[in-house]
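fyi for ur records
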Amino acid sequence: MKKSKGLMKFRMFALVSLVFISLTASNQTVMDVARSNTITWYGIDFSKAKFIGFERFITPDLLKDVLIKQWADATAKTNFSSKYHIKEVKIDINSAQKHNDAIEKKNLLTSTFYELSTESIQRLVSGYETSGEGYGFVFIVESFEKSTEKVYVYVCYFNEKDKNIVSMRRYIGKASGIGVENHYEGAIDDIIQYSSKDFKRFAKH
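which gave:
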């Protein structure tokens, strides 16, 4: 009986310790990221993206070989330091670029509803090769929707050391501009504008 009580106490202590560790780890918030002097942007990742209702308008070859590369290159030219009011924003797009290069064209187009799970996003970020021990952020594209001309992107902030997501939010951009590339580039610009506005607000708390 004594051994049983001792074992129960040990298990209870282990459980409390585990909860404490979890709470300690989750104490990091987007506010901590926003107050950093230096963060790293890890690119825009299309590897889980779906293009809904585009079958008659864009081919998978055009998407992967041309448009995704153009959208990624254009987004990488953003002055993130100025937009997000961070002293230094480093750029490391290697992992996102590898993911984009490995996209299977046959999986890009769909005609049905699609959404990403939190778990799939965390798994994706966990596979990133990080270049620091501070904070990073990445754009994970969920979908482009032809009928509404909207683009859905998760902006994820994460701890570079353990790659755990600190905070993420799904943003919606509205396509604008002439030509397919510029049209949807405008939606990505919306997402940068909305997410940077939120980010600056968190920095003030």
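The radius of gyration is 20 Å. thats all i got for now
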